[in-house]
Amino acid sequence: MKAFIFDLDGVLVDTAKYHYLAWKEVADSLNLNFNESMNEKLKGVSRDKSLKIIIEENGRDLSEFDLSNILKIKNEIYLSYINKIDRNELLPGAESLLKKSKENGIFVCLGSASKNAKLILHKTKIYNLFDCIIDGNDVSNAKPNPEVFIKSSQILGIEHNLCTVFEDSQAGIDAAITAGMNTVGIGENNALKGANIIIKNLAEFNIN
Ligand code: B16
Ligand code: MG
Questions:
Q1: Rounded to an integer, what distance in angstroms lies between the CA atom of residue 153 and that of residue 196?
Q2: Is 138 noted as a catalytic residue in this protein?
Q3: For 156, which DSSP code?
Q4: pLDDT score of 189
Q5: CATH number of the 3-13+90-204 domain
Q6: If DSSP codes are grouped into helix, strand and coil, which group holds residue 188?
Q7: What is the C-alpha separation between 75 and 32, in angstroms, rounded?
Q8: Which fold is adopted by the domain 16-82?
Q9: How far, in Å, from the CA of 168 to the mean position of ligand 2?
């Protein structure tokens, strides 16, 4: 292994709850149904695609103008939470594995769908631990398209089969498999299909 590519939300930081709260507030204001099970479908999915899923599930049709306003409002609400976060949102084992990877000569990259990734890395004070950062602002195709991971390996100059992706979403695992990379699924259950191994959190990962 020469490079580890980490997803952000659900792998390094616990921000999924803020995405949920922001979508819920938006959905309630529009009289759209939105619950925890629908929220599961948004894991690892881009902001635009997330809104499309909510709208489709509700059988509604909105104009492009309305959609772009809703996306703006959702992000403002999400940022109102994110602006208050600190290192307490880091998930178990996250910072320690980032540091151990570097100590072992393994490159560390971020591969996230979030356009707010850099702000979150600064807030949690782990920004400087990355050799490269690819986020939602750098790609035109959202996961399960492998673009985010392929760009990461290109910037590092590392072959795909020498990269390992840490992901909590099925869209992300599928993207990494399509890119020909190794996969570590992160989650409480074995719901992630196709991952090489599945662990509860990064604290369970033994770099040796
Ligand atoms: P933003 P990841 C993803 O982050 C989240 O899992 C997903 O729920 C969210 O919609 C997406 O980022 C976009 O986030 O609205 O901040 O651009 O898991 O790929 O790190
Ligand atoms: Mg994620």
A1: 19
A2: no
A3: H
A4: 66
A5: 3.40.50.1000
A6: coil
A7: 17
A8: DNA polymerase; domain 1 (1.10.150)
A9: 5
The residues near 200 (Cβ < 8 Å, ≥ 6 apart) are 186, 187, 188
> Is residue 7 flagged as an active site residue?
yes
Residue 112 CA, ligand 1 centroid: distance in Å = 7
pLDDT digits (tens, 9 = 90+) for 128-154: 999 999 999 999 999 999 999 999 999
Q: Is the CB of 116 under 6 A from ligand 1?
A: yes
For 35, 120, 137, the CA distances from 5, given in Å and listed in that order, are 30, 17, 17
Report CA(175)–ligand 1 centroid distance (Å): 15
15 within ligand 1 shell (Cβ under 6 A): no
* CA contacts within 13 A on the Cβ side of 68: 2
pLDDT tens readout for residues 165-183? 999 999 999 999 999 999 9
Closest ligand 1 atom, residue 44 Cα: 6
Contact 46, 136 (CB under 8 A): yes
Pick the residue whose CA is nearest to atom 12 on ligand 1.
114
Q: What is the DSSP string of 6-31?
A: E-SBTTTB--HHHHHHHHHHHHHHTT
Domain with CATH 1.10.150.240 in the chain: 16-82
